[in-house]
What we know:
This protein is α+β, with helices and mostly antiparallel strands. The protein is built from three helices and five strands. It has helices at residues 5-10, 58-74, 88-91, and strands spanning 18-21, 25-29, 37-43, 82-84, 100-104. The protein has a five-stranded antiparallel β-sheet, with helices on one face. The longest helix has 17 residues, at 58-74. The chain is globular and about 40 Å long. The termini are far apart. The model has no long low-confidence stretch (mean pLDDT 97). It binds guanosine-5'-monophosphate and zinc ion (ZN). Guanosine-5'-monophosphate (5GP) binds next to β2.
Amino acid sequence: MDNCIFCKILHNEIPAQKIYEDEDAIAFNDINPAAPVHFLIIPRIHIPSLIECEKTHQQILGKMLLLAPEIAKEQGCTDGFRTIINTGRVGGQEVFHLHIHIIGSKDRLPTMIHKN
Length: 116
Ligand code: 5GP
Ligand code: ZN
């Protein structure tokens, strides 16, 4: 995808602090971290968001989810972390290349879902 910032990171056209790479996915630190650990896992194929995912993406979705704890532990998250996938306008998605946020800290993260 020509104008996709994450595709550009994938193809080394713009720099990023990559922390993991394999044939299907990469992970790199978020440029504007929300916590001491904040990285993104993205697939090598350009899928705009979770809404566009189909049965054929089952394997890469599962793989990305299993990579989350593996890389999180390597990054020092030994006592848990948060995973977020923002989807579409309502989900507040800003970059339209599917990504999982992994956010970690030594302290408990702030409550994200507030109920009435
Ligand atoms: P979204 O709101 O789409 O779920 O999150 C996009 C994330 O990508 C944001 O947390 C933002 O800080 C991060 N981001 C946007 N542009 C870049 C970039 O050029 N490099 C890196 N490393 N992260 C980026
Ligand atoms: Zn892309």
